[in-house]
């Protein structure tokens, strides 16, 4: 597996509230993490930084025996996310200026070609094969509920005035219930983990077109960010791109 990590402040924001990391455990496990601090709240960058650092600590203090089955991995991730949520929430209660802070979270635990995804908020995971593009995660957003109940169309959701209204985030409540997804990665496939600064500005067709270009995975990551900036760059833009290609140009 090859990977690249990018995070850009964008063209309109004064602070980058996104945080990203790709971690490699001595016991061959990997963990990709993306956290998008809540832009409308206080100290979004504090929340996203705490999420990354706390997950990093738990990951490197975990023994492989705790991750020896799909059920064990899911239980481990659920417990870790619960603890990180409590830490951020308690910090917000005891630190002036941090009240109400929160963050989205994507955490992808990787072993070989198996991925377990923990998800909170509206950051996304896409899966690209040569034949298909799949949006793996389901946004925890107000407009997504409207779409699911048939109140508005996907096209209307894209331009809805409340499209950035999140109904679930890490650290804003005392408890949180993440969604989990499992992926088995095929050869010649890509996993794209991104904040909404990318997914709000670039279509899946544009993403797929970049991934097929004859360039390195690092260049593809930078090109995705550049296209989001060229399309307005109103938000922070973060990307973790994973490749299952044997060869990258």
TrEMBL record:
Which InterPro entries does the record cross-reference, listed alphabetically?
A: PP2C, PPM-type-like_dom_sf, PPM-type_phosphatase-like_dom
Task: Show the SUPFAM superfamilies listed in the entry.
Answer: PP2C-like (SSF81606)
Q: Which Gene Ontology MF annotations are present?
A: metal ion binding; protein serine/threonine phosphatase activity
Q: Which UniProt keywords apply?
A: Hydrolase, Manganese, Metal-binding, Protein phosphatase
- Could you name the domain of life of the organism this protein comes from? Bacteria
Listed under catalytic activity are: O-phospho-L-seryl-[protein] + H2O = L-seryl-[protein] + phosphate; O-phospho-L-threonyl-[protein] + H2O = L-threonyl-[protein] + phosphate
Q: Which Gene3D superfamilies match?
A: PPM-type phosphatase domain (3.60.40.10)
- Domain (PPM-type phosphatase) ranges: 2-244
TM segments? none
Q: Which cofactor does it need?
A: Mn(2+)
Q: What is its EC number?
A: 3.1.3.16
Give one Pfam family, short name only. PP2C_2
Q: Which NCBIfam families match?
A: Stp1_PP2C_phos
Which PANTHER family does this one have?
PROTEIN PHOSPHATASE
Q: What is this protein's name?
A: protein-serine/threonine phosphatase
